[in-house]
What does this fold into?
Amino acid sequence: DAKTTQPTSMDCAEGRAANLPCNHSTISGNEYVYWYRQIHSQGPQYIIHGLKNNETNEMASLIITEDRKSSTLILPHATLRDTAVYYCIALNSGGSNYKLTFGKGTLLTVNP
Amino acid sequence: NAGVTQTPKFQVLKTGQSMTLQCAQDMNHNSMYWYRQDPGMGLRLIYYSASEGTTDKGEVPNGYNVSRLNKREFSLRLESAAPSQTSVYFCASSAGTGYEQYFGPGTRLTVT
It folds into this structure.
């Protein structure tokens, strides 16, 4: 799996958009970018994933650069409940890659 | 639609005692997983079940056994608990291996 690099921490004001970057310069053509988050003392939560097109769901949007070397997770209107550690992972989808390996992730703190 | 449920939420065991952690999912997923998460560390896969009737070892299987009881349920058994097994245990499920995983709330286990 390609290595991903994320900032250690970020702050965001409540109600504003939170933009979380991720670098994955060695990503291969069949690897998807997945985002998960873990709120303190809770189980990890799947957010979104994409291959090369931008994706949006009810939780977030994922913007992947044309060269696929980086991506940005966007929480359009951050709330205090979005304070969590966010993990960006590159994985082959639909294959036998079953083991999730979280790196350090980005601690997003949403401030009132 | 409860997603992934785990019981119990908390448990304290003495060294040498046994117990079973229960996990159930109502998403008709084929694959299920057991992870442990220690303070300051990432997830480590204990066992997984790619489909009903199959189970395989993950990266830290020693001291654990699993049973895929049916498509919905996947249990984790500690036969003789040790202090090194003090951890938070998460169960997860996915449509198949390599697809996004959905996690339960976790079981916080302390072995004294």
Observations:
- The CA atoms of residues 51 and 77 of chain A lie 24 Å apart.
- Chain A has a mean pLDDT of 92.
- The interface with chain B takes residues 34, 41-46, 49, 91-103 of chain A (CB under 8 Å).
